[in-house]
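Milestone M4 deliverable, item 7.
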Amino acid sequence: MTITAALVLFAVIWFMTLLVVLPIRIKTQGDMGDIVPGTHAGAPEVHHMKKKMWITTGVSVVLWAIIAGIIISGVISVRDFDWLNQLESRG
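Output delivered:
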């Protein structure tokens, strides 16, 4: 695995984890009973973004280490997903 591939893998895992973590423990304006005129009642009032970013990063590092370890060890490779035999030598 190249450094670029490792960084791309981490970025994909980080953003996917962020999308899972974002809706956790969010308090909307409707929940708080203080809706600002011109905004939707579902707009966040208390979002805890800094804490969510740290949680996202921590979970992403663990997931990345597991997935990168599997890829580097060779347990799973690109050839395992070559169902149409596109990677066979043409000779």
